[in-house]
Amino acid sequence: MGREFVDIFDGWAHSYDESVSGKDPEYRDVFEGYEVILREVTNRVSGTVIEFGTGTGNLTAQLIKEGISVIGIEPNTKMRELTLKRFPSINVLDGDLLQFNIENENIDAIVSTYVFHHLTDEEKGEALKKYAQLLSKQGKIVFADTVFITEEAKQAQIEKERNRGFNNVADDLEREYYTTIPILTNLFEEAGFQVSFQKMNDYVWLLDATKK
Ligand SMILES: C[S@@+](CC[C@H](N)C(=O)[O-])C[C@H]1O[C@@H](n2cnc3c(N)ncnc32)[C@H](O)[C@@H]1O
Question: What SUPFAM superfamilies does the record point to (predicted)?
Fold first, then answer.
């Protein structure tokens, strides 16, 4: 489990950067302020970080520019190749949010953008407990992803997208495991983190967690 959406990115890899730049009207609101979101994640971490779901390497680029040492984990072969082609000198490993092999590294932070929703809520809890074991006290997790304030807000958003004919986004919201702030707060706290949330656009929130 946790890899059930990986193949979707075979078909999206070549046009993904057009989507994030707003060229796909259906995904324009999801990627609104994309560069600001990546920068905000980057500004909150330092040292050596694990980046999950590197995709085409856009967050990776920002992290490297700031002198951060990146270990990428990307389960999709095409995406992994795109990141590696862009940054041949870094490690981009085949793995996912739950299964990955990092040896003898001191990890200061764990980051990702538009990735954590690929796990069910139960798996998210499992992953956070695993990350807590990797990080020292004050170690950080900074994720940006689509999150809703309540389940009702999520259903209203799905209805809004269907009403304007954006069925791809609506299907995506129904298919993958987009969760709510109260659920995430519980999962982070149960794993030993203090977490805060910052709204970045109509979909994306920044999750900033520190290990207690
Ligand atoms: C929407 S893209 C985001 C890419 C990049 N982080 C960005 O912000 O542009 C999601 C990425 O997560 C990867 N992915 C899918 N399932 C995953 C999993 N279970 N663990 C880690 N990465 C996953 C996909 O292959 C894809 O590269």
Answer: S-adenosyl-L-methionine-dependent methyltransferases
